[in-house]
Each structure stands twice: as C-alpha cells, then as structure tokens.
Amino acid sequence: MKQGYRTARSAARGFTLIEVMIVIFIVLALGGLVAYNLMGKKDEAVNSLARADMNTIKAGLKMFRFEHGRYPTDEEGLAVLWDKERMSDEEEVKKWRKQLEAPMPKDRFGNEWGYRQVSEHGEESTYDMWSYGPDKIEGTDDDIVSWDKDAETGGTPDTGSGSSGNTGG
After folding, report:
1. Residue 31 lies in a domain
2. Domains held by the chain: number
C-alpha cells in the first residue's frame, strides 16, 4: 500500500502537460493583448509627433513672415526655412536667417510636407500646409492640415494645432 501512496503523491507534485499548455496559452493571450494595446498607443504617439512637427514648422513660417513680410513662395517652399539657397530674391538673402535648426522636409510618415503660399482653405493672407498621414492618401480622415477643416464641413472649430482632417491639400 505504501507504493500506491507514492505514485499518487508524485503525480500530485508535478504538472500535467495540459496544465502547462493552459498556462502557456494564458501567458501568450495576455502578451498579445498588451502588444495590441501598445501598438495603438504607438500610432497615436506618431500622429502627435507629426502635429508637433507641423507646429514647429508653422512657428518657423511665422518668423519668416515677420522678417520678410511674406510667407515663402511655392517655389521656395518650406526648405527656405533652413536653406538660404532657396531664397528667390537677392535682396532678401541678406536678411535671411535660419528658422529651423534641423531640416524637416518630410513628415513622420515619410511624405513630403505639402505647402502652398496662398491658402485655398481660409484667408488668402495665410498659407496651407498638410501631411497626408500614415495612409499617404489625400483627402482621408488621417490627414493632418493647418487650416480649420471643421469650418468647411460645419463641425466644431479647430484649435489651430494642426488637427487631423478629412481634406488634404
């Protein structure tokens, strides 16, 4: 009888293959949930960084306008904020100052920033600037724009922080 007691006791101390598989499944399921939630936060963070980049460029555009009395031309583009060679007027080259320390020709999604000197989405005295967002397609909900996109659709006003919109530039 002592031998039967040992066998039952030995089996009680170890884990069965099914128990081990259940624990592995639970750990993998929890890991998958955590990874899925973190990936969503990463996308949010990249979008926020793109908006912050747009605000940095917008500040550079304001300084450029303050010094030159105008926004950069379409030909000069945003590159004139960090590259003196892009200036079109020789007289203005003399008063040119670098507005952005580091060049920012592309958004966080690898697209060139869109820029137009005369706005088509607001006052003509301002500019349009946009990013087509992560899907790289104009006119989708993930576009990031400098104009008040909600005024065009009758929604709530934009805060001026370069919000996502449903119109590209």
Report:
1. yes
2. 1
